[in-house]
Amino acid sequence: MNKNILWFKEIHKDDIPAVGGKGANLGEMANSNFPIPGGFVVTAYAYIKNCEQLGILEKIQKMESSINVEDSEELNKKSKEIRDLILKTDMIQELKTEISKAYEKMGTKTYVAVRSSATAEDLPGASFAGQQETFLNIFETKNLLEHVRKCWASLFTSRAIYYRKRQGFDIEKVAIAVVVQKMANSEISGIVFTANPISNNLDELVVEAGYGLGEAIVSGSITPDTYLYNKKTKKIVEKTIATQTWKYTKNTLGNKKEIVLPKDQKLQKLSDDKILELSKICVNIENHYDKPMDIEWALEKNELYIVQARPITTLKTEKAEEFETEANKKILLTGLGASPGFASGTVKIIKGLSELQKINKGDIMVTKMTTPDMVPAMKRASGIITDEGGITCHAAIVSRELGIPAIVGTEKATKILKDEEVVTVDASHGHVYAGTVLHKESPEITTKHVERSDFLTVTKVKVNVAFPESAERASKYNIDGVGLLRAEHMITTSGIHPFHMVKQGKQDKLKDLVKEGIKKVAQNFKNKPVYYRTFDARTDEFINLKGGDKEPKEDNPMLGWHGIRRDLDQAEVLKAQFKAIKELYDEGFHNLGIMIPFTINVEEYKKAKELAKEVGLIPHKHCFFGVMIETPAAALIIDEYINEKLDFISFGTNDLTQLVLGIDRNNEKIQTQFSEKHLAVLKLIAYVIKKCKARGVRTSVCGQSASDPEMVKYLIKFGIDSLSVNIDAIDKIKETVELEEKKLILDAIRSRNIDKKYEID
Ligand code: PEP
Ligand code: MG
């Protein structure tokens, strides 16, 4: 096809050599009458013709073939020379005229996305996807022409050249097409999953919707409305409306954050009619591709547009597995499987926060260690790999809650893995494979824990929550409440360090943030207890929040200024949290408990209670107060705490194990020795449970060990009252508890003497 320009309607799915993978897909969608924003493709033929006529084609090919790609200095230098050559050489007039005319047809003030569409992209066995540039919000002819050339140049970035060499690609076949597509200026936008990615139900379609441009939802920065549509009954079966306080809009400088009018913040974003219309379009797209799809959509001037559509690769169904490509089972790296699951994607190495925007939906995030500020980007990733950390580090805790497969403590992921390389994370076994590996579920994963959820246990099984927005998902399980509500992530959304907020006199803002977070969780767990743990952030964890640079530099933050010792030094922070809970009690939320973290002496507990009294939280008939047992000190003097009226204790076994064994929980080098089942840790736990039982104090475990079935067997024998586990472990732990409880009853029966009358002596 020797045309320079092809409109979407002129393109079909087999036209990849002319228009690249992206272009062919858009053509296919336009011809199937899906409402995609209009546009055209500057073909690969146009690129070749341009370079040939300007006499640079052969030159470029020669330059690329002469590069020794293993010499990164040479690679970077030559790659830049080729790109400069393209950028400095003007475009042939014929092409300039044709592109300008095509753009005029769209309207010369139209905002367009200019995307590279490499002809080798997305082909089986050659995952170049995402390696070339995309430019958004381009307008005016001059800019458009310049960005088409920028796309061409991006065919020669160091990493693109490196991968072509690694794949043994024929240099003469290297070409690039450029997609020019109108950008939807959406009033409302979002994502549709044509199968429910949480329940894996193929009959359910999930619509997410928010005000403004889609970037806010895709990046995980706002919580969207969620609507569930049943494909069989063709009805909306559930609607969850989120409060949205800000949105992105577009202006000539790019995306702009704007306040949503207060009257609109709590409204349903997309009308029922539009939900039905959108669902119908998306079901048609799924049928067209014969796969469950992940679809980005936009509503502009009451018209729906489909912006992107790709297969859902994380769905745990045989159907979803069909479209993973060939297996290449080379293990590149091993580490600790911290959040179970299986995911394939493109590696993005993150060296600093400024690089987080590199992470697109479905990528594999590779970094030294995650921090709370990385959470929005973590939500976009399909898998996470870190150099550092153990099973209770930040990356592990967050990934488990978000349900993202994660491997931590690999020691060298950021050195061994290469940016843009495709890998598969098998986090159930701690293996990273090269390429996309077909996921055949291993027998231990398919042991049908999920088929039953009606376990009957006397020991309560609760769930750990760090993100208020996960509360809804967690509440769908047969669960007895929230045994640990971590406070730290509630305040990161503000971007300001909590202690800094208070220094600026913004106690009320802090109180409101905490209140809003707790309320969201409590509403999802009506009539079930929710145990809120007061702030326990280490000084190195929030340094990237505003004011975080003022945090002291500690040699060992794990043993430093955190938990109740810090909250008492900066009592306004503690008071703001207590006030939030007091207000919630007054509003009728009577299911809240308070846990004090990292205590070492009873004075701390007493002082915390005095502050609670000051804000009117105590006495309160609904207020239950307790401490976390996270230090050997607190465990050994448990009697003193009980003397001070303690409603409950909860073991923070992550810290307790660290301190009993003297093993830094974040140090990957010694993780194999980190074990809650060490006799010394077990003895301390058994001691505290015995003391508490004797004096009517309820006991619980909320550290990671409560999610380990082997540890749970000990805890049940010791007589623990409740366990608080990660969402992914609920069914597995309930099953273990049910079995262990039955065993204990049987053991007790079996050890009794048989009634004399049945004995033969
Ligand atoms: C613990 O230490 O076990 C605990 C639950 O707290 P964190 O992991 O937040 O320190
Ligand atoms: Mg702790």
Summarize the structure in words:
With 761 residues, the chain is of the alpha/beta class. It folds into four domains: 5-182, Dna Ligase, domain 1 (2-Layer Sandwich), CATH 3.30.1490.20; 188-311, ATP-grasp fold, B domain (D-amino Acid Aminotransferase, Chain A, domain 1, 2-Layer Sandwich), CATH 3.30.470; 331-434, Glucose Oxidase, domain 1; 460-758, TIM Barrel (Alpha-Beta Barrel), CATH 3.20.20.60. The chain has an eight-stranded mixed β-sheet with strand order 14-21-20-16-17-18-19-15. It has an eight-stranded parallel beta barrel with strand order 22-23-24-25-26-27-28-29, surrounded by four helices. The site of phosphoenolpyruvate has 11 residues, from strand 23 and helix 24.
Structural class: alpha/beta
Count helical runs.
Answer: 27
Under CATH, the topology of the largest domain can be stated as TIM Barrel
Supply the CATH superfamily name of the largest domain.
Answer: Phosphoenolpyruvate-binding domains
Bound molecules: phosphoenolpyruvate, magnesium ion
Shape: elongated
Let me know the average pLDDT: 87
Give me the Rg, rounded.
Answer: 29 Å
| Structure summary, number of beta strands | 29
- Percent helix range: 25-40%
Q: Any idea how many domains? A: 4
Q: How large is the share of residues in beta strands?
A: 15-25%
Strand order of the largest sheet: 14-21-20-16-17-18-19-15
Low-confidence stretches: 121-130, 316-328, 440-451
Largest sheet: 8 strands, mixed
Distance between the termini: 100 Å
CATH class wording of the largest domain: Alpha Beta
Write the CATH architecture name of the largest domain: Alpha-Beta Barrel
